[in-house]
Amino acid sequence: MPDFKEEIVSTETIRKRTIVSFLFLLLFIIACIVGWKWLQHQPDDDGALKPLRAVLNGNEKIFGAIISDNHLAKTFPLSAAEHKVRVNGDAGMSAGFDPAAWKLKVARKPGDTMLITLDEIKALPKTEIVFDFKCIEGWSQVTHWGGVKFSDFVKHFGLDEQSYMPYVGLNTPDNGYYVGIDRKSIMHPQTILCYEMNGAPLPMNQGAPLRLIIPVKYGIKHLKRIGTIYFSNQRPPDYWFERGYDYFSGL
After folding, report:
1. Has residue 29 been placed in a domain?
2. Which of the residues in the chain have pLDDT under 50?
């Protein structure tokens, strides 16, 4: 057995170590207070304090470089889908909307806007997905959606040239809610223009007649009741980005 020598620590040594520990704690608290006051006096940058926005932009560069067609959201069997689907917000869902008169507006370029009916969209090959819908409020739910791949939609309606622009913007008919999506995410094989939930037409509170389902993003990007789609070389306005959230909002 090895011999262990017991270390005897004097009362004076303990006192000195205690004083040093309290000094470090005090310095840490002072640094936190100074840092917090400094942060509160920083200028606003698109709804967030400038240092925080810099961090969010850095995260976007990292995750934007990672995402690809091989980066797929986990899918589940149909039996795992919830029948009572939660609603993640109602911004842009103004009263008085008439789904029977709805047509999707797709701006190919200034002064050139296509009007597309739901029947024309439903005539394209249908895609269904069951995935874990994640909300920034902290809840998630496995849900079942059906519609048309955005990439198929682009190809069918001759939007290939536009689709090479780095961003796509989507607005509700009343322009009360709007999102900007990066090209790699909107053209992702799991992104769909959705017209069904649980095998039935979308309910009004879930974005009827057409909404975006984009499993590689948080729910704030899944715009309900799409009115207009357009393509852009610059970041389109984004509702929650303007309120301090991450523009990319990826998973």
Report:
1. no
2. none
